[in-house]
Amino acid sequence: MRPSQPLLPRFLSPSRRLRGTNLKGFDSLLRYSICIIGFFIATFSLYSTLNLHGEKNLGNGRLNGDSELPKVTIFSAPRPLISSNGSDLTWARQKLAVRSWLALSDNVDVVLFGRHPSIVELKEGYSSRVTIEPSIDFTFLGTPFFHSMVARAQSTASDISMLIDSETVLFPEIFNAITSIQKLDKDWFVFSFTPNILNFAYQLAGSGHSWFGQDGRMIESNKLQEALFKQSEVRNCSERLLIVWNNLKLPLFHGVMPPFMYGKGFYELWLINEILSSEIRTVFDASNLNLSLYPENLGTLSSMFSEDYSTWSKRTWEYHTNLRVAQSYGLLFFQKTFLSNAPYEIVNSLGQYYFLNEEKGHILAPGTNRKKEILNSLGCHKERNKCSLWQFDNLTLGMPAQIEYKYTLERILQTVSDENKTVILGISGESYRDMLMSWVCRLRNLGITNFIVYALDPETYEFSLLQGLPVFMDTKSPKNISFDDCHFGTECFQRVTKVKSRMVLKILKLGYNVLLSDIDVYWFQNPLPYLSSFGPGVLGAQSDEYNETLPINLPRRLNSGFYFAQSDPITIAAIELVVKHASSSNLSEQPSFYDTLCGEGGANRVGDNRCVERRTNLTVVLLDRDLFPNGAYKGIWEKRDIRSVCANLGCFVLHNNWISGRKRKLERQMASGLWDYDPTLRMCIQNWSNFEVLSDHSY
């Protein structure tokens, strides 16, 4: 419950507080004066005690490798840069922010999340202390996932991790506060809302100790910090949150963080609420200290946004997705309101820090026995900062969010297709959604982003939206798809497979090449350069023949679960024939592919690995089984080390077919180690202990 009075003190003059006081208020004035005197006596006493105990104040300057200071890694997800000539405001803010972080101490390193090549520019000149980390989860639009960012920050070897907005400037005082909290010998979590400064006409000096204004005058960091928050317009504190925590082996809260999209709202308050409620860590609100700022304007560079970030972000489907996630997971699913507990709030007086929780009547401060007296003194005179957690008090989530996703198939194709107008098509229903995500994660790990997902049911569609996938549905999708009984040979399987060729035909007619890949196909390397080399009028398809001594184009051995079709008149005409044949067949789509393209009984076979469809003159190439093995070829799935076997063969992919039943298929793939998704954490599996740095040539 919110306290009846604001918690955080702001030391104002008596004339400002008691303006209009009459004689009847003399007793109040006297009590006020006694309270202020008592506070300063208590503060001076604690200040002296802490200095006798060797408390270190970090001052204004940069710290040089003090072994007593904690090792801190700052994590951030920069926005892709439009230009680097100084005219782009986002670029200028991010460069300034990174410089301010590195100026804090030699004990600070920076990790930047991203895959866009422009991010390399942010590390120029800081190669040893700034690392670019591409190995987290992103949406198809390039938005990073917050839960993946936090998990990566948890994996660092530093003493302390910090997550911060890429355009947030830090003041040296943050290191003072962190060091003071660390001395409490607790497992802790700190958050601070970053205020927006409307006009910020300063640049960081080369040493990082001071700033200089447009008039060329130098000003120390603490003086600038004090002046800014007394004189500048401060607004919109809710969208940029700074979080810091220690003891990275300890979880932040009970439970698992759902897949929030970074920068799209709600995850900040959701996380704070979960941590406060779990009571695993002592939670501190440092918003009152003004440790950071977001510069809307930098001198002559003006903000590109004429309205608050909080306004335009709510117009996106990603915002509504985050709202749906916040409503569906964690304690908010049950209580629907934020802030069931209060954090400790941090106060800085005369260079010393007090940690207050007035709701509990507690004060945390090292080296003193006079905590009650200090708490009473600090409680005499308070005024809460605008950027306080209590700005969200009594906020409710309201009705369940409707995700307004307006990406049509045409728009998705325009967004994700590669330079050759090629897309990879995966198709899935609810029963295979974990396998879908393993397939997606594997493509992402290979750096492949030009894939799209056709959802067979509304459940898979919404799940894919929450996972940030480029997903679409079709009004002609089959209905009543069985969860466990939709494998090869079943009536459900027959209905599902026939939609694949129809969807491929639709995409081909829109002018895009299609590599259709069943989601049970595991990818070792990208086959598109190889498949594209066949040229127009050629369709490359996997062979289902398992006998190593027989031709691979024998009747009914064309696998319609992996093939590459180019958008040319010959191929489109041939696929139209396949769709027409399948629509009148009582079998699955696969026999229609072979009988149409290779002729019934193999009448159109050419050699041991080809067919030619006589009406359209389309050439079908059955792919080399060493490069594209099916599930029964050479008993690969029964080998102990499948990766080594496929490395020796040169496999591009390996199909997990020739096995009956959903459970058996899943068990075989997961047991083999060819699995790239953690369904419990809702994240792709990463190897962060040996992550590779993104260089100028590896994006």
Automatic annotation (TrEMBL):
PANTHER family: BETA-ARABINOFURANOSYLTRANSFERASE RAY1. The chain crosses the membrane at residues 29-47. One of its GO terms (molecular function) is glycosyltransferase activity. The keyword Chaperone does not apply. Coiled coil: none annotated. It comes from the Eukaryota. It comes from Rhynchospora pubera. This is Nucleotide-diphospho-sugar transferase family protein. Residues 448-668 form the Nucleotide-diphospho-sugar transferase domain. Keywords: Membrane, Transferase, Transmembrane, Transmembrane helix.
